[in-house]
Amino acid sequence: MKNIFNPSHAEEILNRINNLSPNSKPQWGQMDVAKMLAHCSSFQDIAMGNTFPSRGLLGRVIGRFVKPIFYNDKPLPQNMSTIPAILIVDEKEFDTEKEELKQKIIEFQNNGPQNCANHPHPFFGKLTSEQWGKGIYKHLDHHLRQFGV
């Protein structure tokens, strides 16, 4: 499984983000490309320990049992539900969101695994830095595939 802490894997993700345009259309789901970038940026904030969404009841009950879906080798399913706190409903500006996400990825990768959030994932619970690194890559890959890059 690829890991965002690997410099070549991070570079691959950044290059794919650069291939997006304001006119990129989703192959599934309802977010436009700017909202998707904002969503991914909000997820980065969780992994970086900048935001701390509370854990829902369902996550507390089954999160630890299903958390390998976050970091295993299988792609995330299309139209998977998201953490309510990072569901983007407001209109977003593409170029701003694109640059903000790229900067967060670079910062996260440069800070290294030792600076991952200690706060539990809002659904899956406690994650190791390796699980965060793989999960961040997998989440970004999922949404970039959503938009054909």
TrEMBL record:
Pfam families: DUF1569 (PF07606)
Name of this protein: DUF1569 domain-containing protein
